[in-house]
Amino acid sequence: MAHSPFILQEQEFQKLKTVLARLCVECVARVVFLVDRDGQTIAFNGEIGDMDTTSFASLAAGNVAATNSMAKLIGEDGFPAVFHEGERESIFISVIGRSLLVVVFDERSTLGLVKLRTKRASYEVAAILEEASKQSQAFAANSASAFADITDEDIDSLFS
Amino acid sequence: MTFINYASREINCKIVYYGPGLCGKTTNLQYIYDATAPQAKGKLISLATETDRTLFFDFMPLELGTVRGFKTRFHLYTVPGQVYYDASRKLILKGVDGVVFVADSQEERMDANVESLYNLEENLQTQGYDLMQLPYVLQLNKRDLPGAVPVEDLTYELQKKGEPVFEAVATTGTGVFDTLKAVAKQVLTELRKT
Fold first, then answer.
1. CA dist B87 to B49, B53, B56, B82, B125, Å?
2. Whole-prediction pTM value?
């Protein structure tokens, strides 16, 4: 069977947004994303312009999945962080359990600063996600989902 | 794993197109991409080799509309079909909500279909899934080719659990949306249980 859905409530979402907003300022980052390891964006903060954030999240997750598999091939459990350096823009990815904290920054910032600030934010994000995960399980167990009484007509209407 | 965001009122689901090399997985996605209104889709990302064989995955996000006030977004992925890309296939199955197995109807590809289906079951197991419990659809592609094996024979060989079976010609779009609709419906029906 498919794994239980992860349900994120408003309160936790806002807490995550607050952490990301602060991290974005502290890192002097262009944009900060929180992405799950399946490639779905959980939250982001910053200047995205016309960036395709959905594709970006999917590729970030694919990237981490591939590098983690490479890590295993050389006897490592995984890489807790991944860094890509560009001419103007760079990407730092920190792995937090089932999620990825992705910081996009340019020459206004430095890798050292981004690593330092991201580490602190990672603890906060991990704590919020743990709480969100507990709530998600409790929510699912209580059958309080808005989808419990979803009808065939609701689903069919998506394809009409 | 389905991700439901109550704050932004969004449901995100992951569907993976699986099957042997050159069976038409990317062609399915390409047709869906070409036939979908611009506002309902994101970019079609293809991580392919120089000869257009899928190297890691193809990906496209597709928005179908709203259900119970929630925007539904399907993330469609394909896997590389070639046998030696197995490590990549395992990674892409992580977090899957529904699978489409695209079979190649040509007689000479029968062994490849069977091998790929076995590989799917095995790789799902390593990710903690059971194919018998997962939203799943079988697509018999390339029905237009002269050497196509009869539908009954393919179904007998490849159907695993009474899943919906669709005949398709992905290059022209025949059966492509029927397949997608069937798997999407099963995935959304699963949400009732949450």
1. 16, 16, 9, 11, 14
2. 0.91
